[in-house]
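Sharing a chain and its predicted structure for anyone who wants a worked example. Both blocks are below, sequence first, tokens second.
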Amino acid sequence: MTTEQSTASADAPQIPTDIRPQDDLYLHVNGEWIASHTIPDDRSADGVIRGLFDIAEEKVRDIITHAAENAGSDAAAEEARKVADLFASFMDEDRVEELGVQPLEGDFAALEAAGDHDELVRVLGRLERSGSPGALAAYVSADAKDPEHYVLYVHQDGIGLPDESYYREDQHAEVRELYVAHLARMAGLTGIDERTGRDAADIAQAVLDLETKFAKDHWDVVETRDAQKTYNRMTVDEAAQLAEGFDVRGWLTEVGAADAPHVIVGEPSFLEGLGTVWAEASLDDLKAWAMLGTAHSFAAYLHSEVVEANFDFYGRSLSGTPQLRERWKRGVSLVESLLGEAVGRIYVAQEFPPSSKAAIGELVDALIRAYDSSIRTLDWMGEATKERALEKLGLFTPKVGYPDVWREYTAEVRADDLVGNVRRATEAEHERQVKRIGQTIDRTEWLMTPQTVNAYFHPVMNEIVFPAAILQPPFFDPEASDAQNLGAIGAVIGHEIGHGFDDQGSRYDGHGTLSDWWTEEDRARFEEQTGSLIAQFDVLVPRGMDEDDTVNGALTIGENIGDLGGLSIAWKALHLRAAERGVEVTDEDGRSFFEAWARAWRTSMRDEERRRRLTIDPHSPEEFRCNQIVKNMDAFAQVYGTQEGDRMWMAPEERVSIW
């Protein structure tokens, strides 16, 4: 912790020390910590989850620094050497400073040499293999309508601000001004101005204007959540015709996917608009935009002035973070991103005992049984849909702790070539992915490493995944009571299961196929309840923020359904497990349960970061993930005896109970 620190907001209202849970459960549990805690200068937010991240980060650093001692000739030892060399290449500041922006010379030259718009598209496709961005983003994943096979998804891209609203809304006008200044600074530091013979300020304004045109055709954050609207299967020829003016076929050829029988286009109207914008834009402006995109992609691995300039905008201006993270922490993050499972294999052996995996497995089983019981007794869902919902629940695949099959990393890693390491590792992963197109999916694969403090639900795989790093206090403690564990990790497990039945997850059947398996009547009743939940969250303003800084209920509805369903089902699981042991759930158990839930969301956040998240994050602010969720639960009202006049009171007829 540095000597110069700041709180989340100097203007935030003071927090009383005697808050009752009936008035604010979140502050009753966390208020004293929030009032006294200062956010370290190298982060935009701090709290329970960040604390677990810090613990994992320290342990991973130890693994990395000892990796060189394990280097040798067998496969595991070879991976250890790669881990050590990748970290060493990042920590070799003298070498990084010596190289300056020279590592980008080849990319810049290729972009500069493009003779026309179509050739520039093809160059972007080639550079995307090694990590440069473009006007479109592509990734390979399970096909939502053929979930046994991989397919290429194509989505909108091309902008450097968090989302399209930053280019049009008045509230982001200052950010746009700072962004133009940042672009000019980056153009100067990376030599793009000299290379193109243009003034840096002119380049910056041209790039903002171009990105603004891209952004006009971007779908907003609510639209891009829609699983059905964003599934548009097309042949390559159909996509090319839609984007006339932008050489989609040439781009896919260079990306390595020209032979794909079809692609899934996320936002067709963007593709159509892109063709027009691309054809009408000047080649010089497109080249400058592409060079700056490449510079941003590799900025973290260049000399200190570029690193500082990039952080100054994306860290300080957008998130309010005063200070860049220590170099070793950034080096650990790099190793995690490129060689994560090589580290994870060692992490699991050291930090995750088999007993924890077994205990979590029992909790997962209890949550699934509680969901089963709840679905059977729903009064708003018909029998036909219930049968399909129970089938889906029965087909859930839980994954706990770590994968059964570990990744192999084939890219060459050299201790003296940081940017080259990033490029080669990125290209190796790119090649691994494009080779999968049309192939049978690998159900052993994990999308998070064991040392990641998070969890996820994959709708097409119909699986719930809980990495080892989140399975520790305060989320899970083998010495804690059932009430405490179920109020924390139990609710997280329930949340991820709940995603299978949220507004988007419920569009996928038990085999992961995107399909209409609900009756129209049941879907209408479901949407009536989710509409009420959207309305509740739409009017919420985080503590200390302006009245216009409201939650976007439509953006956050999936996570809010997950939270409400997860906590409600965790409560049912608490009673189920108690009944199996022949004991009663006491009021003390109830308080432990809800306080564990509140404690799990303990967070302090800078205003700039909160405002950014309100714009683009599908998760509600932590205070509402706690308070607004429990307001809807009869159990909370019963445990704490809330009544009309209490701030945590919600009239029974206004409460939403979905699962």
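Comments welcome. The longest strand covers residues 146-156.
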